[in-house]
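Form 7-S
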Amino acid sequence: MFDPVIAPSGTLLGLLQRGRGDGTLHALTAPRAEALAALNHCVLRDPRHDWQVENRSLYYARLYLDLSGELDEIERHLFDAEDILDDCESRTGLALAVLGHLASYGRRDALELLRRYAASGTNWAWALDELALRDDDAGLRALAVPVLARFPADPEGEAALVAQVRDAFEPRPWRLWADDSRESIATRVRAAQEQGSFDRWQRQLRPTGPRPGWSVRAVFEWAQQGLDRGAALHVPAARCLTAVAGSEDRPEILQAARDGGDGARCTALRYLADSNDPDALDLIEAAATGGTATVGEAAVDAFERMRSVAAVERARRWAERPDALGAAAGRMLACRGGTKDSELVLGALREAVRGEGPDAPTLWTLVDGAGRLGIVCAAPVLRHVYRETASSHLRGRAARALAATDPSFPAGFAVECLWDCEESTREVAARHAETGDARVVDQLRRLASDPAEEAEVQTAVRSRIGPDAPAV
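Output:
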C-alpha cells in the first residue's frame, strides 16, 4: 500500500484525514454534500500511515450518523471489480470497520452490507469478525455455507480451512458452525478445530533457536545466521547470552563488541548495555560512529534502553551531536533527564521539527519529554506538531504535553479533542476542557451515554459531570 496523500491541515479533508476533532466540527457546519464527499474520500482511501494502530473507524462512523450519510459509496467500493484483483486488507478494512460501528448503532443497511461482503468479498474474514461482534446467531449461521464453500474439499483446501479456524481473530462464528444442525458443516468445522489444536501442540514440541548448554560463540553464530537470511536476532540472542555467559566470558564478549561480525557485534552491544557494563558506553559510541549501518542502529537502540546514571550523564554530553547518537541522547533525556535538561530536550524537539517535519518518529519521545518536564517554552512547537502531524497517536501525545505546558489548552485544543479519533485524546480532553462552551457540555454528555465509547473516556467524563463532580 502506498503512503496516503494528506491534504493541508487547514482544509476539511485534511482535518478529517488526520482524525482531528475540528474535522467533525467543520463537517457539521459545511454543506452536507461537501462534508459527505470528504468523509467518503477518507473511508475509501485510508489516510492512516499505520492503519493497524491508528483509530479512525468510530470517528468516521459517528460522523456518518451525524450527517445521516448514505452508504452507496462504500457499497460501490466493496463490490468493485478491484476487490477481486487487490486482496490487501488495507483496501477495505477501514470501510468494513466503519460498517461494523454503524451496525452497532442500529444501522440495518450497514449490517446487510457486511453480510453480503462476508459471503462474497475478498476480505471476507474481516467482515466476519465485525459480524461476530454485532450479528445474531441466525445471521451468522446463514453465512456458514458461503464461507465454507471458499475452501475446496481437497488436502490444500482443508489445510487452508484449518489455518483460518486456528487463527481466527473472533472465534464465535466457527464455534456456532461447529454445533450447526447440518452435519456436513458441523463435521468439517470440528475437524478443522481439532487439527488446529494438534498443530499448535506440534509446534510446541519443535522449538527452534538456542538450547541449554550453548556456548557464547554458538549464540553469536546463531545471531549471524539470522542476519545472513535477513532476520535480526541480536535482541533474543542477547537474552540468551544472559543465560549462558559467565564472568569468564566477558573478554570474548568485549572483543565481539569491538570488531566482531555484525550479528555478534550487535548481540554483544545489546548484552553489555542491558547489563550496564562499565565499557558499554564507549563501545556504543565507537560502534555508532565507525560501524556498519546495521551495527550503528543496534548501538543506538542499545543505548536508549540503558537506565544508569552514567548513561544519562553521557547523554548530556552527546545531546548536541548532529547524528543518530545525538538524537538518541535527546530522547534519553526526554525520558530520564531532570529539569536541568529542559534546554537540551527543547533544542532536540525544535531541531527534529525543523529537520524532519511534524511526523518525525523521534518526536514521539521528545513530545512526551516536553510534557513530563513541563517545558512551557515548548508550547508553540507542540501546537505546531498538534496541528500538522498526520499521526493521530502523535497528536494525542502533543495534546497531553500541551495540557502540562500550555495554559490556553483547556479553552483551546482541549475542546476539539473531545471529538478526536483517538480515545486517549478524548480522555485528556474530558479531564481538561473548559465547560463554559455549551458544545463541551453536550459532547461530554454524549460520550457518557454512548455504548461504543471506551471505559477510560467515560470514567474521565464522569469525573466532570457525575454526582460528585463540580456542576457544569
